[in-house]
């Protein structure tokens, strides 16, 4: 398969027509070989415009390129930013974000994904990113504070601990349900508190780790 051609088609046909105008995102996704972060049996599907299952049960999926690009754009990452990437899967998104952030640390709770991500990042000689194993809902307090926290997936609940890990004027991007529809949201932490802005509808993989705990009443 001609992955280089598929990558160009992804950018031209999936990203550009869907309001992704940040040239840094377009350049990074044109450069990073998505297939390097895809399980061997799934490599021919690396550039499809849909979520890509990463495990046999389909519990974890790589986000559709268009939605990933739009979320990255929403985060407004600067070249001086220190970024926390939560639920990084096999590291593709980490590699992309590393191209326009100062440095990035990513976490995942799947040890196999963490190993695959670090191997792929090393193969590409990406030196400003590292992937660690950890509890997704806890973030990474020991490395905080962060300029940007990027949660790659649809969550039911956002733990308050994440706001404690943001710098002032820091941004947190994720997908939450708004009026019954999964929507991309951006939180901004300021001296007076935390604001929340809904940006666009986003049908992305759900993160089981962030499911709302069920309660029972008599």
TrEMBL record:
User: What's a GO biological-process term for it?
Assistant: methylation
Supply the Pfam families for this chain.
PCMT (PF01135)
Q: Name one GO molecular function term.
A: protein-L-isoaspartate (D-aspartate) O-methyltransferase activity
The UniProt keyword set, sorted, is: Methyltransferase, Transferase
Keyword Transmembrane helix in record: no
Q: Which GO terms describe its cellular component?
A: cytoplasm
What CDD domains does this protein's entry cite?
A: AdoMet_MTases
Reading the lineage from the top rank, the first entry is Bacteria
Q: Of which family is this protein a member? A: Belongs to the methyltransferase superfamily. L-isoaspartyl/D-aspartyl protein methyltransferase family.
Protein name from the UniProt record: Protein-L-isoaspartate O-methyltransferase
